Amino acid sequence: MLPQAHHIAEAFEGLVYTCSPHSRIEFMNSEMAEWIGRNVIGEKISESVPELTFTCPEEAIEEARQGKTVKWDALNPANDRWYRVVNAPHENPDGSVSVLVMVRDITEQKSTEERVRLLNNFLDHVVESLAHPFLIIDPDDYSIVMANSAAKKAGAASGFCAEMGDDDFNNDNLPCPLDEINRTGKPVIKSFERELAGNSKYLEIHAHPFFDKDGNLVKIVEYILDLTEKITLEQALRDSETRTRSVAQSSVDAIISSNDEDVVIFWNDGARKMFGYREEEILGKPVTTIIPERYRKYHSEGVKRFLETGATSLTGRTMELQGLRKNGQEFPLELSLSTWRARGRVYFSGIIRDITDRKEAEQALAQRTAEVQERKEELEALIQMVAHDLKSPVIAIAGLVRSLKKKIDSNPQDENVGRIAEQILTSSQTMEEFLTDLLDAMAVEKTEPQLEQFNLEEVIEEVVSEHRPSIDEKRITVQTEFFASDSTVTADKRRIKQVFDNLVSNAWRYMGDVLEPTICIKIRDDGLFVTAMVCDNGIGIPQEYQKRVFDQFFRVSNSSQQKGTGLGLSIVKKIVEIHGGAIHCESELGKGAAFIMKLPRNPLQ
């Protein structure tokens, strides 16, 4: 090898050696000697250096001997590294041809090329996956160098773009703002409207120029955003905000909003009229501006607690508070509070109603109610006094008339005198009963029941015994059915006896003419209650009157033959309810009536 070639071989960054026509190593550079670790000149590669067999396969050597230079990349299985191999013919002085072999390690280059390939592949996939058109344009002729599927679908399939102008709306090609890029040398963003398939589309072009080292425009990267949905939503949002603000401003109630800094951010006209602050005066001011001084600390603590924990007892309900007008006047208000979150912040909205008029009306009503109650109590006192004062003389009159009637009966002279005496006696008895019932009705409402424990069956037997003369006179059969294992109750014994006295009395009084008149009294156990029923097979109560039989002074029209005060059943109902029980009536006209009451065994439980 010539000295000059020898220097070149030594300077080469890699392995250099020559292979004789007999496949023996004729020359090798120092890097190869260092790589092998010994001098192998004169030896066959396949025998002495088998790890270099991949650099000079027989077919490559044969082509080199035929005067061809062969290049290829080979993977060395011995160390798993890539090498760039060149086999070139080298003519010897004797005319024979050796093979010059140059081997360079390109493993890092291969790795870089693979990374570049993968990166390009990744970028291709990213660009292709974009929902909006993406393309690269040659500025010399507006031709499209590269376009993703979205761009082809939007018009890039023609292969060319068009300069943006007045006729872009009907141009099938995608527009490109090349003139402005050439004029400014900067990226361009342009918005335009285009008619597609009968619908207006709002598009935005982003065009980015790329220049070479000399400042010449070589490529334009362009992508197009469809802003139709965004603009439509923004317009809908503006319309919604306009409607919301219009509704809020037209409200007679105050509508106020604040943020998590407790600062007013919305103030409608109703708030201006209510508090006296104009919108420009109050926006940005603390909410405590409209809260009386004594409540501000509690308000601030409540806002802080809500922001820290999210817990509040004020949202979702209406509450009555005090407000503070600009002139310093306090007034009662009704507040409905709500909260919402947006962009990581908390906001509050309140609908406020001035309830000054309502409070004044309530106060006036309360005062009027108190006055009516006072008059009612005065009237009741008057009635009680009159009834009490009348009862004594009425009883005296009745007694005198009875004495007079006895004398008349023992010495009859004029039958009219006896009849008149009888009428006076009946009237005085009616008056006495009325006054007694009236005083009883008032006493039931005014006095607390005197509770004691007693057996209900014994009370019923006492009542039946007291009414026995009248019952026997009408030939009425009384049946008692006591199904309760324990008929003991805790109640006002005198009042409960009064209930059964009234019910039994009504049963025989309104029996009417029936073939087998019967009164049935039943008691059954009902857990914590005792259920009692007094029923008869008398004249009954019409359906339309059954809900009114417990009203004061109400008497059933078909009982006109029996005179009563109309207070008995109302007294019965009050007594039962005072004891925590209930009573109702069941009846069928011509088949009798049943009064069913449910009494607690112990009202204190």
Automatic annotation (TrEMBL):
<dbReference type="Pfam" id="PF08448">
    <property type="entry name" value="PAS_4"/>
</dbReference>
<dbReference type="InterPro" id="IPR004358">
    <property type="entry name" value="Sig_transdc_His_kin-like_C"/>
</dbReference>
<dbReference type="InterPro" id="IPR035965">
    <property type="entry name" value="PAS-like_dom_sf"/>
</dbReference>
<feature type="domain" description="PAS">
    <location>
        <begin position="240"/>
        <end position="310"/>
    </location>
</feature>
<feature type="domain" description="PAC">
    <location>
        <begin position="186"/>
        <end position="239"/>
    </location>
</feature>
<dbReference type="InterPro" id="IPR000700">
    <property type="entry name" value="PAS-assoc_C"/>
</dbReference>
<keyword id="KW-0808">Transferase</keyword>
<dbReference type="Pfam" id="PF00512">
    <property type="entry name" value="HisKA"/>
</dbReference>
<dbReference type="InterPro" id="IPR036890">
    <property type="entry name" value="HATPase_C_sf"/>
</dbReference>
<dbReference type="InterPro" id="IPR036097">
    <property type="entry name" value="HisK_dim/P_sf"/>
</dbReference>
<feature type="domain" description="PAC">
    <location>
        <begin position="317"/>
        <end position="367"/>
    </location>
</feature>
<dbReference type="InterPro" id="IPR003594">
    <property type="entry name" value="HATPase_dom"/>
</dbReference>
<dbReference type="InterPro" id="IPR003661">
    <property type="entry name" value="HisK_dim/P_dom"/>
</dbReference>
<dbReference type="InterPro" id="IPR013656">
    <property type="entry name" value="PAS_4"/>
</dbReference>
<protein>
    <recommendedName>
        <fullName>histidine kinase</fullName>
        <ecNumber>2.7.13.3</ecNumber>
    </recommendedName>
</protein>
<feature type="domain" description="Histidine kinase">
    <location>
        <begin position="385"/>
        <end position="603"/>
    </location>
</feature>
<dbReference type="InterPro" id="IPR052162">
    <property type="entry name" value="Sensor_kinase/Photoreceptor"/>
</dbReference>
<dbReference type="InterPro" id="IPR001610">
    <property type="entry name" value="PAC"/>
</dbReference>
<dbReference type="Pfam" id="PF02518">
    <property type="entry name" value="HATPase_c"/>
</dbReference>
<dbReference type="GO" id="GO:0000155">
    <property type="term" value="F:phosphorelay sensor kinase activity"/>
</dbReference>
<dbReference type="Pfam" id="PF13426">
    <property type="entry name" value="PAS_9"/>
</dbReference>
<dbReference type="InterPro" id="IPR005467">
    <property type="entry name" value="His_kinase_dom"/>
</dbReference>
<keyword id="KW-0418">Kinase</keyword>
<dbReference type="InterPro" id="IPR000014">
    <property type="entry name" value="PAS"/>
</dbReference>
<keyword id="KW-0597">Phosphoprotein</keyword>
